Amino acid sequence: MSNRTDPDKTLDDERLAHFLERIDRGDKIEADDWMPDDYRNQLIKLISMHGVSEIMGALPEKEWVPKAPTLRRKLAIMAKVQDEMGHGQLLLRVVEDLLAPLGKSREDLLQDLFSGRLKFHNVFHMEAPTWADAGVIAWLVDGAAIITQTMSLETSYAPYARALQRICAEEKFHAQHGESIVLELAEGTPAQRQMLQDAVTRWWPSLLMFFGPPEGGTVSSNQLLNMRYKIRSQTNEELRQAFFNKYVNRIYHLGLTLPDDTIRYDEAEDVWHYRQPDWDRFVQIVRGNGPCSAQRLRLRKTSYEEAQWVRDAMLAAPRAEYVAGGSL
Length: 328
Fold this sequence. Notes:
Layout: H1 7-24, H2 37-62, H3 71-99, H4 106-115, H5 131-152, H6 158-186, H7 190-209, H8 223-228, H9 236-253, E1 264-266, E2 271-273, H10 279-289, H11 293-306, H12 308-315, H13 320-323
Antiparallel strand pairs: 1-2
C-alpha cells in the first residue's frame, strides 16, 4: 500500500486552508479568486434563486398595474415592478461570473427555471386576488426580504454585497409604498378593512415560510455551511424572529389579527412562540406545485421567448458598412 501523498489533494487542502483564513479575517472574495467548489455552488444556488425570485416576484404585482385604484397608485406599482425586474437582471449578471468557469451561461440558468430545476421563492407561487394583496406583498413580503438582504450585505462574496447595496436601498422604498397602501385600507371602509384582513390572513403562512425551515427540522437546508463560509451570518429562525420583532405589533396596532392564536412574545426567553407552518407544503410549493406556479412560469417563459429577437439583435455582429465607417 502506497504512502505517497496526492499532490493535487495537498494543493487543494492548502488552498482551502488559505481560503478559510481569508474568510475568518473578514476578507471579501472576488469572482476571479480561487474558491472551493461547495462555496461556488452555494453562491450559485443562493444568488440564482434570489435573482429569478426578483423577476418572478414582480409578476403578482404586475397583475395590478392596470387595476390599481388611482393613477398615482398605478405609477407607483409600475415603478416597483420595473425595479424588481432590474434587481433580477443585476443578480443574474452577478451569478454569470460564477457560472462561467463551469461552462454555463445565463441561458442555462433560465432554462433550468423553465424546466423546474431552478426554484424560486415560495411567496411568489401564491395568488394575489385583491388590491390589499398588492399592499401586503410590498409591506410584509418586501419587509421580510429587507431583513434577509440586510444580513447579506456582510456576505463574504463581494460582488453579491455590492449588488445588494443598491437593491436594499430600493426595497426600502417598496416597503414604504406597501405600508402606504395598507394604512389607507386600514383607515378605509369596513369592506376595505376586511379586504386587508383577508390578505394578511392569506399571506401569513407564506410569510412564516419566507425565511426557510429551521435547522434540525424535517426539511434539510444548507444554512450552517453558508454561515461557515460567511455567505450569511444568521440562521433562518433568527431572521424569522427579527421579522416578528419588527412587524407583529405593527399588525396588531392596525387592529388586524393573525391566524395563529398561539403567537406570543416570551420576555424571559426573548423569543416569539408561534405555530409552525406546514413545511411539507412548503416543499411542494417550491417544487412548482403552488396555486400560481404553472401560470407564473408559463408567463415568464412566453415573455422570454417573445423577446428572443431583442437578444439576437443585441448580440448580432456589426454590419460591414458600419464597421468600415460607411452608411446605407
